[in-house]
Amino acid sequence: MQIGVIKGPAKEVDLFPMLVKRLTHTGSTLRSRTHEEKAAIIGELERHVWPHIRSGSVKPLLHQSFDLKDVRGAHELMDSGKHIGKIVLKVVQRST
């Protein structure tokens, strides 16, 4: 499932790998949904998706990690649109 997009509609999408695996892609911006519809979607996510996330059977895809001091590099990668998955900033905790 995809909710929202950062850079607008995709120009080129190869759906063949999804078709071969008989997968379903569902997307929404949720902007046109009522509060009741959004609440129903949240309820469905809590019932059907969150248990898989809690168990660890579904995990986010990590593309690249950056130290916080290289936040500019992280933003440049995000702006390039050449990533698939999450871009993570690492924060080092200092001992006092």
Largest sheet: 2 strands, parallel
Straight-line distance between termini: 43 Å
Low-confidence segments, given as residue ranges, are none
Compute the gyration radius: what is it?
17 Å
Average per-residue pLDDT, rounded, comes to: 84
What would the principal axes of the Cα set say about the shape? Answer: extended
Individual helix count: 4
Question: How much of the residues is beta strand, in percent?
Answer: 15-25%
Order of helices and strands: EHEHHEHE
Indicate how many domains the architecture comprises.
Answer: 2
Cross-sheet strand order for the largest sheet? 1-2
How many beta-strand elements?
Answer: 4
Oligomer class: single chain
Estimated structural class: alpha/beta
Helix content: 25-40%
Compact overview of the structure:
By secondary structure, this protein is α/β, with parallel strands linked by helices. The chain contains four helices and four strands.
Structural notes for this entry:
The chain is of the alpha/beta class. The protein folds into two domains: 1-59, no CATH class; 60-96, no CATH class. Helices cover 36% and strands 16% of the residues. The chain contains four helices and four strands, in the order βαβααβαβ. Helix 1 (16-20) links the parallel strand 1 and strand 2 (27-28). The mean pLDDT is 84.
Please name the defining characteristics of this protein.
two-stranded parallel ribbon; 4 helices; 4 strands; extended; 96 residues; two-stranded parallel sheet; alpha/beta
SSE blueprint and pairings:
Elements: E1 2-3, H1 16-20, E2 27-28, H2 35-48, H3 50-55, E3 62-67, H4 71-80, E4 86-90
